[in-house]
Amino acid sequence: MKNSKILLLVIAWMLSVCIHAQDDTPIDSTLFTVGYDFRVNTKDVDGEPVVDSLKTVVLVGQSYILSKGYSSYWTKIDGETHETFDQMQNERLMHTPIIMRNAIETEMTVYEDIPVSHYVYTEDVNLEWNLTDDTLTVSGYLCKKAQTRYGGRTWTAWYTEEVATTAGPWKLSGLPGLIVKATDGNGIFSFTLFELKNRTVPISISLMEEGRGDLPPVKTKREKFIERRNKLFMNPRYITEPLYYHQLSEADYRVFSLWSLEESRNPDGSFSMDVLTTYINGVAVPKKCNEYQPLELE
Question: Where are the domains of the chain?
């Protein structure tokens, strides 16, 4: 009986996502897409060094540039497998932001989660880069070095003029060529290009809220969002109690997600709740975390 109830909850979540993402009317199409490996050097609950990692994709169109989780986008285009499903869960558990900006403007719209809510804010990101004559071959591209400061961190980027765009990973952009690699000054974060596809695929408004349930995002200011996120996630309790700051109530809409109920059974036929990803109000909630490292300190 319990397993049947879990399955119904999973189906309910899937239907909710499908209904919410019906408006796929394209607003642009890509000139090319860029895949980045994102790595975070951090520590586990025992204080041992570990690396959190995921992949992101940047869709570079004529009019718009959109950044989001790699598997969350490509499964929509190429279909879903068990592997890509697991990768999507990881992207959502790490609260990968979705960032949309006009290709010729510096203002961007950022969708990001703090369990148990979705948030959205706009930000004018006009980075001041210090260009140098240093060169390095990265991912097969001859690159030049540039540095900037953003969000309380110093960033070093290697960009190539072989690809004519100002795009880059996350919020890093504005150079005279594609950013191929970017690292912060403390050696915590790195973005590294692993693929560049000359492929025409649609960019639609629905991509900004895909997989986020039926609840509209909470409009906020960037400074307010960063302050709240860092305060909550950098609390020592967050590692073992990721939702320590929220008292669950009947108003919270809870569902669970997994690839296959049958494939997730134990050899004796039993079923463990540990294989489920929990969503509260459409926001994925991890069961435990590594030490949180904020991309933006301020």
Answer: 1-298
